[in-house]
Amino acid sequence: MPLYRDQGVALRHYKLGEADRIVVFMTAGHGKVRAVAKGIRKTKSRFGSRLEPPTNVNLLFYEGRGELDIVSQAEAIDHFRPIRDDLDRMTDAMSMLEAVDHTAQERQPDARLYQMLVAALRTLADRERRSPLLVGAFYWKLLSMEGFGPVLDQCSTCGAAASVGAQLVAFDLTEGGALCRDCRRGRPVSPEALGLLTRILGGGLAGALQEPDSALTQEVAALAVHSMEQHLERRLRAAHALDRG
Ligand SMILES: [Zn+2]
Fold first, then answer.
1. pLDDT in tens, 196-231
2. pLDDT in tens, 160-176
3. Which domain holds residue 136?
4. Residue finishing a domain among 23, 57, 80
5. Rounded to an integer, what distance in angstroms lies between the CA atom of residue 126 and that of residue 138?
6. Would the pTM count as exceeding 0.90?
7. Gap from CA of 214 to ligand 1 centroid (Å)
8. Distance 180 CA to ligand 1 centre (A)
9. Do 79 and 111 form a contact (C-beta atoms < 8 A)?
10. How many angstroms is it from 244 CA to the middle of ligand 1?
């Protein structure tokens, strides 16, 4: 059987038979890969712990005959222990993994998506204080990368521009983004939220991640989850695990 090497983040896994597990990876070179990890439920092996989400691993695969490959070796690049040791951070990580799982195509290389995920997980692990906007910002970046970056400075239906006095009061990603009073549909949005969104997508991400938790960060984060769900046409389970209120 042919072998290949790649790097990948373990997104999720599920049981296969008595002792095996299927692990779904977002890889750097092969897109989303589903592979069998043999025997890892029988023993408490380090091999198994390296295949726990959200670990980033160097992998050696055997190419399988069907859709499933076989994980032959796994060496951790990032354990992300600070994420695993903190339930809120782990929920943030799972929210990002879930969106990537539903966005990435099997066997369609997407190195940028892999790199963006690893960078976001490293930020999540390294920051002293958890940012209320990290997951939301990741969703906005992901939507942009997929070609669904929202229009923020004018009405996405009639084109009335904020710079000439149009009031943008609503947001609907399926319409293209912000909407004026006349064209409004979707969800109401505040001018401050559109401003913060512009910063996130316009090169001001690092500053936006410093924002303390507030009604504004919650509005932008909730709009991100809603828009990602609209785009994927499904509810994101992990993203609602931290809903409070
Ligand atoms: Zn309009």
1. 999 999 999 999 999 999 999 999 999 999 999 999
2. 998 899 999 999 999 99
3. 82-150+165-240
4. 80
5. 16
6. yes
7. 29
8. 4
9. no
10. 33
